[in-house]
Backbone:
């Protein structure tokens, strides 16, 4: 049996003190506790600091293009439904460049856990606004301060019909680990938006800034969509953490009868068995 | 001996129904034919038409001359009457419009009225088929069985249609019975009546394609439709992506995880895919992309044909990486060649682009049944027993091809692919030496890949003075042009490329030294194959015959251009 440490591989290229470390450890802990073997696990990512995660966790990895982590994850899930598929990337990758895939994969509802490192800033390109940057944040590009309202990923996911919507904070590592476990176990698309400080470029949303605001609300009915939306819209002085909505619905894979049985990737095949295909043209 | 039929009307008048019924019935009877479509980018109205040519030896292309014109509206008559031969006939509905008194070729058939008598105006097309049958001397029974099959699930509908068919037959018989003589039948070998896109869809499925992700785009959508219909009973998943970017990235994920994957599009959609194509090159993930060309730039002429994207697909994607480019020349060849695309993709772990166009995609032809045992399914995958541990996805090898394992087959071993430059294990690197080794590894594959390219097909005079060079869907029209020129005494041959990249050069260079004039015939404005040939071989083509009005060549146009230059 593998321990948390066995999943931690590679030399990280992150800044000391980055919130990414806690997220990586929480993920490794979750994988160890769920006993997911590395060869049966696939992590897909895009580009960005968070997107380097497939290099730092022992797993199969598809470190693809910026914004395009979800599409290959969907394709891989179709090819081999037995793989546990995690998509892990940053806020720019998932909500900006990859916004269209975020929208439509929530609608599809594949059995994929989507972990988003949300530091409200672009780290890899050194400090431009991200879709989740708060208005007023001054950067080298947004010199007069961000003017557009921030994208609200939780509310968007709820409106699109996501069955699992959660928010975490890298400073609450045990809670994060438990939430990642729940997201992986959830049958369907599971969104975990993880707040994390970017110690190099985000001087507004610091560790202390988050720490002061986050709290764990009482959620009496996790299937109460209206209550979830209300929590999703809370931002500012108080930021709620936790699984704010939890309600499975049929998955993308459920609708594909062809996936019943052995994974497509392992099925044998001989072209000559299909020669009857031409009969309809006679 | 041949019969050329043109049916035209507004979009939505059901010309396809007529041609599909008649075409299939004729092929079942043993006749050889081709059926091409010319349609506008609209669902209703406008002017659409289809041509059907029945000739011995199975015609390779349709021509301009018309024996029977079926004018479902007045515009069709006005547009095409000058190409209707003096011996021709025009079938029309006098209830809808009248022909001029001097038109002696008229065969008035009250399509709508007779259809209503049979049970509903919707069957006007079936009445027209009946009229066509009598003109070409084929008894209604040839279509009756087909109508039973088509409407097997709708009670009474087949009977009504047969009634309509017979009414059309009887009405037209008053004017002209068997006034056109069908050519001799082909061999009775249960031939197929099949469209280009259906050939490609069937070839993909029979090549073991398990995943197609695409965004609908004319003229590639037919492949999507074919495989989607099959996904109910065959192990293939078809997903309509939110955009072409998603489509190619989904296909790459599926391929990475172990299945043969395909995406299909046209030029505009392929523009969105090029970053993904580059990713396929960097991650060395097998992928087949069918690009069904239509005229650009931008939205261009959405439902028409062009060969304008050869240069684009040759160079698409940032950075340098190996790829193969193949093309559809004929229905017979395309079936096996798309399989070759899958085989090359798997063997060399590269993206393979298969160029089609509207001219190929939408054309039906009668063809011999395909030999499925000729198709390959060689995945070139390794398993737990074959690998050195720890597994290295990008192991450096002499030919550049690393043993490819898919995720989940070896306990404790993982498969890591990366769009960043990487080391043998797939981890991000930035050092110069590894970078150079990895570029060399990838590009080395081109050497063995080039050996897999088929030399262009040579047709015509074995000692030509003029050599026509072509590629893709122009194969049929060029063959016919060569035949026509030969009949005029011109010593001419066709050298036709199916595999385009890496460019096979041997046969071209051999012939080029022996002929007086080299022509390149292309459906584009700049002569893209000619430019490729010049770049790769230094050989200058003497003359370009180009057409870029969105319509495929007709044989007489090529003959005229070559003769002008005689």
Residues:
């Amino acid at each position: 049996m593998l321990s948390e440490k066995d999943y931690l591989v590679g030399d990280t290229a992150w800044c000391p003190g980055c919130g990414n470390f806690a997220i990586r450890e929480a993920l490794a802990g979750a994988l160890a506790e769920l006993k997911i073997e590395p060869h049966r696990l696939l992590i897909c990512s895009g580009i960005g600091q968070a997107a380097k995660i497939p290099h730092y966790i022992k797993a199969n990895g598809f470190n693809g293009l910026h914004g395009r982590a979800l599409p290959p994850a969907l394709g891989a899930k179709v090819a081999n439904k037995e793989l546990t598929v995690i998509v892990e990337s940053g806020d720019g990758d998932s909500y900006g460049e990859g916004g269209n895939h975020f929208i439509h994969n929530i609608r599809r509802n594949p059995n994929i856990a989507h972990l988003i490192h949300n530091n409200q800033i672009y780290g890899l390109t050194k400090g431009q606004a991200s879709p989740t940057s708060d208005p007023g944040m001054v950067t080298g590009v947004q010199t007069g301060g961000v003017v557009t309202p921030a994208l609200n990923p939780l509310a968007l996911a709820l409106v699109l019909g996501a069955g699992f919507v959660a928010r975490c904070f890298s400073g609450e590592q045990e809670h994060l680990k438990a939430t990642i476990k729940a997201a992986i176990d959830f049958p369907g698309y599971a969104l975990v938006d993880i707040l994390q400080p970017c110690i190099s470029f985000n001087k507004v949303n610091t560790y202390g800034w988050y720490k002061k605001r986050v709290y764990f609300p009482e959620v009496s009915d996790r299937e109460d969509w209206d209550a979830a939306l209300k929590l999703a819209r809370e931002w500012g002085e108080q930021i709620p953490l936790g699984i704010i909505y939890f309600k499975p619905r049929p998955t993308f894979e459920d609708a594909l009868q062809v996936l019943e049985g052995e994974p497509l990737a392992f099925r044998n095949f001989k072209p000559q068995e299909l020669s009857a295909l031409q009969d309809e043209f006679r | 001996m041949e019969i050329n039929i043109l049916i035209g009307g507004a979009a939505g008048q059901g010309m396809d129904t007529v041609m599909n019924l008649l075409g299939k019935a004729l092929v079942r009877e043993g006749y050889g034919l081709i059926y091409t479509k010319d349609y506008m980018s609209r669902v209703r109205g406008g002017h659409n038409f289809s041509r059907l040519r029945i000739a011995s030896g199975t015609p390779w292309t349709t021509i301009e001359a018309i024996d029977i014109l079926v004018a479902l509206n007045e515009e069709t008559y006005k547009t095409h009457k000058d190409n209707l031969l003096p011996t021709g006939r025009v079938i029309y509905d006098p209830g809808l419009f009248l022909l001029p008194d001097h038109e002696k070729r008229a065969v008035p058939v009250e399509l709508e009225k007779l259809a209503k008598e049979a049970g509903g105006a919707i069957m006007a097309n079936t009445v027209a088929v009946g009229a066509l049958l009598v003109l070409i001397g084929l008894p209604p029974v040839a279509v009756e069985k087909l109508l039973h099959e088509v409407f097997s699930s709708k009670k009474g509908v087949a009977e009504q249609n047969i009634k309509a068919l017979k009414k059309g037959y009887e009405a037209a018989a008053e004017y002209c019975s068997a006034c056109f003589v069908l050519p001799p039948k082909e061999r009775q070998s249960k031939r197929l009546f099949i469209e280009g896109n259906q050939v490609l869809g069937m070839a993909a499925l029979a090549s073991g394609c398990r995943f197609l992700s695409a965004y609908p785009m004319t003229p590639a959508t037919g492949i999507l439709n074919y495989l989607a219909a099959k996904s109910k009973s065959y192990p293939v998943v078809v997903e309509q992506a939110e955009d072409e970017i998603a489509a190619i990235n989904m296909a790459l994920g599926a391929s990475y995880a172990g299945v043969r994957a395909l995406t299909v599009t046209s030029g505009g959609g392929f523009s969105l895919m090029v970053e993904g194509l580059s990713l396929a090159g960097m991650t060395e993930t097998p992928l087949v992309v069918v690009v069904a060309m239509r005229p650009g730039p931008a939205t261009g002429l959405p439902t028409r044909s062009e060969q304008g994207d050869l240069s684009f697909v040759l160079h698409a994607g940032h950075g340098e990486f190996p790829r193969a480019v193949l093309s559809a020349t004929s229905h017979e060849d395309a079936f096996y060649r798309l399989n070759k695309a899958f085989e090359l993709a798997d063997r060399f772990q590269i993206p393979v682009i298969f160029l089609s166009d509207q001219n190929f995609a939408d054309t039906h032809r009668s063809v011999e049944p395909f030999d499925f045992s000729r198709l390959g399914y060689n995945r070139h995958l390794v398993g737990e027993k074959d690998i050195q541990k720890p597994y290295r996805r990008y192991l450096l090898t002499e030919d550049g091809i690393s043993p490819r394992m898919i995720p989940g087959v070896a306990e404790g071993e993982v498969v890591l692919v990366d769009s960043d430059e990487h080391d043998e294990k797939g981890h991000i690197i930035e050092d110069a030496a590894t970078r150079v080794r990895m570029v060399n590894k990838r590009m080395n594959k081109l050497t063995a890949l080039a050996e897999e390219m088929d030399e262009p097909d040579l047709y015509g005079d074995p000692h030509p003075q003029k050599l026509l060079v072509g590629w893709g869907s122009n194969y049929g029209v060029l063959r016919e042009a060569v035949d026509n020129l030969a009949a005029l005494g011109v010593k001419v041959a066709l050298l036709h490329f199916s595999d385009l990249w890496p460019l096979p050069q041997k046969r071209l260079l051999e012939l080029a030294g022996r002929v007086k004039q080299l022509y390149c015939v292309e459906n584009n404005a700049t002569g893209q194959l000619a430019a490729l040939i010049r770049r790769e071989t230094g050989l200058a083509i003497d003359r370009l015959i180009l057409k870029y009005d969105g319509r495929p060549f007709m044989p007489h146009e090529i003959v005229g251009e070559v003769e002008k230059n005689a």
User: Anything to note?
Assistant: The longest strand of chain A covers residues 84-90. Chain A has nine helices and eleven strands.
